[in-house]
Amino acid sequence: MVYDAIIIGGGAAGLMCAFTAAKLGRSVVLLEHQPRLGNKILISGGGRCNFTNLGATAQNYVTQGSPHFCKSALARYTPADFLNLVQRYGIAWHEKKLGQLFCDLSSRDIVNVLQSECDSAGVEIRLGCQVRTVRKVDRFQVETSRGEIVGRTLVIATGGLSFPKLGATPFGYQIAEQFGVKLVPPRPGLVPLVFKAEDSAAFGGLSGVSVEVSARGSLGKGPAFRENLLFTHRGLSGPAILQVSSHLTPGEPVILDLLPGRDVLGLLEQERRSTRELRNLLAQWLPQRVAEVWCQRWAPSRPISQMSKREMQELAGRIQAWELHPGGDEGYPKAEVTVGGVDTAELSSKTMESRQVPGLFFIGEVVDITGWLGGYNFQWAWASGHAAGQAIAQG
Q1: Buried b (16+ CB within 10 A) or exposed e, 171-184
Q2: Residues whose CB falls within 8 Å of the CB of residue 9, separated by 6 or more in sequence, listed in order
Q3: Are residues 183 and 214 in the same domain?
Q4: What are the pLDDT digits (tens) for 112-150?
Q5: d(Cα 337, Cα 187) in Å, to the nearest integer?
Q6: Are the beta carbons of 365 and 347 closer than 8 angstroms?
Q7: Domain assignment of residue 67, given as a range
Q8: 350 and 309 fall within a common domain
Q9: pTM to 2 decimal places
Q10: Same domain, 308 and 230
Q11: Which end of the chain, N or C, is more open, meaning fewer C-beta atoms within 10 Å of its C-beta?
């Protein structure tokens, strides 16, 4: 049998692509090397799957390519479309914050929806199926641990390198290289940062303490994220840090505003006759331990009334633009996604098909499109999978 589509990868994007093409009358086989589908779906959102974000637009994605690349797919399969699918199955859900939608009960509900859609559409699913070689003559020939499969099209939906314990591999990148498809070098994204030794000695004792900050990169390439920062034994985590990590280049410092929305210099000038120390003033808005440790490192231990205007200006600037140089990040084991991947210049934004290799598609995380924290990466999986599935059906 020659299948219309061979899909490698049984995660969010692969499953969406499979049932989209199959519902439109195409024969589809989906290969997953793990013994079950949707491993990353199952652990996402603390086990409740943040399955989309109502506000998803192209501005919520990081890429080295054109910032407009993901617009077409996102416009043709929206958060409302996936929510309609969830509601059709009667799955209870809630909006947590900032448009983030979660299952009320379990991530397993989302996997069950996707598998049910595949089953009803006639998708053939092969679990525990290892792909050994891929080649193309006139059609794609995929040699697996369960024999050879031939397909008119081949879809790579194998994800990135995050969470290697769940079976992440560089397979998708290797296939791209095999067929001469260019890559943007992958790196961990949405990942905690690690302190350098001097910062670890100063701030490592704050592990478990959280504070609202505004975080941005020093090169001005991405937005500022106003969310919580969490001190850890090794460095910094929390939503603000995970968000900004995807925008940082290796070695780039992160800029932290510890009192976002406040005029810190104005506050200091109001205290210019005060006998209070800076740590006591900051403790009005920051956890006391954070105020004390930060001031031990950066502020003189004397009353504010004894500070010169220049000292006040320098301290206010540091509080609102604390430049922290990470010693690195926690790597793929702690990264939620992979930044980089298949260069978007190599793909059609409408179909996700390779411009150089007809019939070869790349979807989901394997592509150099990385969403913000909060359901955006799942929405890209649904949208890119849907785009490829439709293209296969129409081809």
Answers
A1: bbbebbeebebebb
A2: 30, 31, 32, 155, 156, 157, 158, 159, 172, 364, 366
A3: no
A4: 999 999 999 999 999 999 999 999 999 999 999 999 999
A5: 9
A6: no
A7: 2-187+337-394
A8: no
A9: 0.95
A10: yes
A11: N
| pLDDT at residue 220, as a whole number | 83
Q: Does residue 275 share a domain with residue 207?
A: yes
Instruction: Return all residues near 330 (Cβ < 8 A) that are at least 6 apart.
Output: 188, 191, 192, 193, 194, 234, 235
Which structure tokens are listed for 140? 């794609």
pLDDT at 265 over 90: yes
* Same domain flag for 206 and 282: yes
Same domain? For 324 and 348 the reply is no
pLDDT tens for each residue of 47-98: 999 999 999 999 999 999 999 999 999 999 999 999 999 999 999 999 998 8
Provide CB contacts within 8 A for 40, sequence distance 6+. 11, 12, 159, 163, 166
Tally of structural domains, the chain? 2
Q: Is 49 left (phi over 0), alpha (psi -120 to 50) or beta?
A: left
Q: Measure the CA–CA gap between 40 and 377, rounded to whole angstroms.
A: 11
